[in-house]
Amino acid sequence: MIGPVDSNCAKTLCKRHRKVSATASEGEVNIFFNLCMDRVHYVPERQAIYFVDSSYVNVPDVLSRVFSGLGCKLQIDQLYLDQLSIFKSLKRVIITEAQAHAVMVALRMEGMQITISK
Predict the structure, then answer these.
(1) CA-to-CA dists, residue 39 to 1, 46, 85, angstroms
(2) DSSP class of residue 111?
(3) CA within 20 to 30 Å of 20's CA: 2, 26, 38, 114, which one?
(4) What percent of the chain has pLDDT over 70?
(5) DSSP symbol at 71
(6) What is the CB-side half-sphere exposure of residue 52 using CA atoms within 13 A?
């Protein structure tokens, strides 16, 4: 298993802000390859927000606080690159449009970039 990313490396990676645009029809694997530690991707048509583990921002903690404030239950699904569930990829949260607005505001306040499929 690959260990955690060095914090200096993580900071350097987060300074790179490449432009990412994903259509709503993009598969979850393509979304995974376009994410980084300071970016979250929202797909309104699927009512899903995607992210990867980050040493930059504790996304699950932010989501937990938002959902708690909204009085909703949070379920984070771990997705995998392979059928044997060995190689972890994205994490996905199914959210309503109202929840998405609150989540995106909270994540932006933590310094995360949000990309949205159109």
Answers:
(1) 23, 18, 23
(2) T
(3) 2
(4) 78
(5) T
(6) 22
DSSP characters for 21-62?
---TT--HHHHHHH--TTEEEEEGGGTEEEE---SS--HHHH
Token readout for 99 is: 């929840």
- Cα(89)–Cα(53) distance, integer angstroms: 9
Answer yes or no: are the C-beta atoms of 103 and 76 closer than 8 Å. Answer: no
Measured CA to CA, the distance from residue 112 to residue 14 in angstroms comes to 9
Residue 62's Cβ-side half-sphere holds a number of Cα atoms within 13 Å equal to 22
35 vs 53: CA distance, rounded Å: 10
User: Among candidates 58, 86, 63, 83, which has minimal Cα distance to 75?
Assistant: 63
Residues 6+ apart with CB under 8 A from 101: none
The residue assigned the tokens 């607005």 is: 101
The whole-number pLDDT of residue 1 equals: 45
The DSSP annotation for 74-109 comes to --EEEEESSTTS-SEEEEEEE--HHHHHHHHHHHHH
